[in-house]
């Protein structure tokens, strides 16, 4: 099975050391363009664009990078509760059409109550997933060409539909990650690719089995992906030295503040990430070559595969053997590490390398009249 490899656009900042301004660099459009083009040059299928108040807007970043790339796909955050599902469907269809069918969407419900409150979302964990489930039902059906009436607990629409469909049919793929029971239930019923953060293989095996079983109960099959950092060097010793350098500017106060901030999250996935290391520097290799140092101060994905190319490739293959076909990787700084991954890691893996396709043909439409299309006029006899 050829593996789909994705890279990460660091719209929240980038540099050589975690938790420090030393070695930091400005993340402007020119830099993001460099990272995206490096990922495309090295053979990555696409890039994940993160979301949150610490990030540049994912949709605008994706739109700005479409003209400077040829076949790179953009995995863009979809935020239920922040935008209506019908508007989000129009945005998704537009981005898919204007990118030539290079979009994927990542459903993100959020987990930080303080950040959610800032966006006007006051629902608790359970209600947030109820609303996300309703949002996804509407979003999918509208994109698939239906005229949707929906009367739910959180969302109501009447006659919701698209005039301009997406290029990808029946719609662009939907990705999603979540470790709680409601998250897994949503994934099993509605999403195309279920994502996990980089937990040890046995924990990942358990999550895959749970989602796969629930999907089968709906008569569905779900693909699986994983989000990991990588620190790849020519030798294992060099890789471990690079891992230590990455956190060499961290002090205990910085780690403590970060862990306290993560503790307020109601995300089960974030809680599982924090439990892997407990904020302790002396217990960071949590599984062979799986290092949790990134999670000392970074929320979300907090683990990295560390080693030379053959070693990291072997660990990736262990996850692939569990049923994972998509890997979203990253490393600090993201420009240089994209090249290292492509040059040192990819030769040891079976990578699905995208090819630039001819521009898809888009059906012509005339001007709309009265907010709708004019029916084709019957030929006169």
Describe the structure concisely for a colleague.
With 381 residues, the chain is α/β, with parallel strands linked by helices. It is built from 12 helices and 15 strands. Helix 1 (29-42) packs parallel to helix 12 and helix 3 crosses helix 5 (125-143).
SSE blueprint and pairings:
Elements: E1 4-8, E2 14-15, E3 24-25, H1 29-42, E4 46-48, H2 58-65, E5 73-78, H3 85-98, E6 103-107, H4 113-118, H5 125-143, E7 148-151, E8 156-160, E9 174-177, H6 181-190, E10 193-197, H7 201-217, E11 223-233, H8 236-246, H9 252-263, H10 268-277, E12 285-287, E13 290-291, E14 304-308, H11 309-321, E15 326-330, H12 334-345
Helix pairs in contact: 1-12, 3-5, 5-6, 6-7
Enzyme class: oxidoreductase
EC number: 1.14.14.5
GO molecular function: alkanesulfonate monooxygenase activity
Description:
It catalyses: an alkanesulfonate + FMNH2 + O2 = an aldehyde + FMN + sulfite + H2O + 2 H(+). It comes from Jejubacter calystegiae. InterPro entries: Alkanesulphonate_mOase_FMN-dep, Luciferase-like_dom, Luciferase-like_sf, SsuD_RutA_monooxygenase. By secondary structure, this protein is an alpha/beta fold. It has a single domain (4-348), classed as Luciferase-like domain (TIM Barrel), CATH 3.20.20. The protein is 38% helix and 18% strand. The protein has 12 helices and 15 strands. The protein has helices spanning 29-42, 58-65, 85-98, 113-118, 125-143, 181-190, 201-217, 236-246, 252-263, 268-277, 309-321, 334-345; strands spanning 4-8, 14-15, 24-25, 46-48, 73-78, 103-107, 148-151, 156-160, 174-177, 193-197, 223-233, 285-287, 290-291, 304-308, 326-330. The strands form 3 sheets. An 8-stranded parallel beta barrel has the order 1-4-5-6-9-10-11-15, surrounded by 8 helices. Strands 2-3 form a two-stranded antiparallel ribbon. It has a two-stranded antiparallel sheet with strand order 7-8. Helix 3 (85-98) links the parallel strand 5 (73-78) and strand 6. The model has no long low-confidence stretch (mean pLDDT 92).
